[in-house]
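Bug report

Summary: C-alpha cells for Substrate-binding domain-containing protein differ between web form and batch submission.
Environment: batch mode, default settings.
Steps: 1) Submit the sequence below via batch. 2) Compare with the web form result.

Sequence submitted:
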Amino acid sequence: MRTFLLILSAFAVILVPACSGDKGNSAGDPIKIGVLASMTGSLESYGKQTVNGFQLGLDYATQGTREVHGRKVEVIIEDTETKAEVAIKKATKLLEEDQVDILVGSSSSADTLAVLPLAEEYQKVMIVEPAVADSITGAEWNRYIFRTARNSYQDAIAGAAAIAKPGVKIATLAPDYAFGRDGVKAFKQAAEKLGGRVIHQEYADPKATDFTSHLQKIINAKPDYLFVVWAGANTPWNQIAEMKLQERGIKISTGVPDLPALKTMAGLVGMEGFTVYFHTLPKNKVNDWLISEHKKRFNGQVPDLFTPGGMSAAIAAVEALKKTEGDASADALIPVMEGMSFETPKGTMMFRKEDHQALQTLYAIKLEKGTEYPNPVLIRELTPEETAPPVLNKK
C-alpha cells in the first residue's frame, strides 16, 4: 500500500506542471490570441480596420518585440464573414484546434453575441471590439467578457447631448437587428432625460439599399431632427439628400461613420453630432504614434474609425499580461483587468469592475466642408464619466 501511495504521489507531481501549462502558465509556450473579424461581408471595412489597429497595438505595447515576460505573442485571424453561424464555427476552431489563450472580436454584434457563450464554456477571456450592442455587456454578459468598444448607451448619450433639449421632436432610423434596436432604445432614454421626444422610429433591413419608404414615413411624422444609427457600406445618406429632408425642415444628426461613408455626406455639412474617433481629434502621444505609424505602413493613409479600437484591444491585452507576468489564464487575467486603466489613442480607458465595459472619451462635433470629405470639427470632448452607461448585466 505504501509503495502504491509513493507512486501515486510521484505521478501527481508530474501532472502539476502539465495542468499549469494547460492554463496558459508555461513560460516557454507562445501566448496565442485569436481575432474574429469581418474580413469579408457587409462589415469588411470595419474588420480590416480593427485587425490593422490590433497589429499596430501589439507592436506599440510591446515596443516591437511581440513578447511579454519572455513569451512570444502569436495572432491568429479568422474571418466571420459577418455571419453568426460562421463566427461560432471559427471561434470553436480557434479554441479547440489553435488552443488560443484570448479571444478578440467581432465586427458584428450578432457575431459577437453568438460567440460569448463559448468564452464562458472554454473559460477564456474575450475582449470585444468593435461590436456595440448593449446586451454584450448586459443581458448576455459573462465574467470572461471585457469590452474596449463603446456600447450603444455611450453612443446614445453622446448623440443626445448634440441635439436633445426640451420640446425637440426626434425621429430615428436604424437597421433592424441588435445594434440598431439597442442604439435607438438607448438614444430614446438619453434624449428624453434631456427633454427631447422621440416621436417616430423606423427600422430597415440591415442589407437595404432603398430607404424611400422609411424616409417618407419620417417626413410624414414631421420631426425637428432625424437621428440615424447605421453601420455598413449601404448607407442612407445619398437618399436622405435626394429626398431633401433638410430642405423640409428636418435636421440630420448621427454618429460620424468611417471615411468611405463620410465621403457620401457632403450634403450634411453643418450637421452637429458625435464621433467615436476621428484622427485629428485626440491629442495624446498614443494617437500621435498611431497616425505616424499607420501612414508608414499603409501608403500615407490615416487611421479610420475602428483602427484605434483594435489598437486599444491589443494594448489592453498586453497591459494585463504584463501585470500577470505572462500568465494568460482567465483566473489570472480577470482580477487584474477589472478596474484596470490603460492608455489608448482616445486617451485613458478603464474597464469598469461591474460589467467590464471600458469607459472612454467620445467627441461632440460639427461637420465642416473639407477637400475629400466633410471634416468633423471638435465642439468638445465628452469625458468617460459623462458618457458612462448604466450597468445592465444584473450580475
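Above is the batch result. After comparison, the two runs are identical; trailing whitespace caused the diff. The CA atoms of residues 291 and 302 lie 6 Å apart. DSSP finds twelve helices and 16 strands in the chain.
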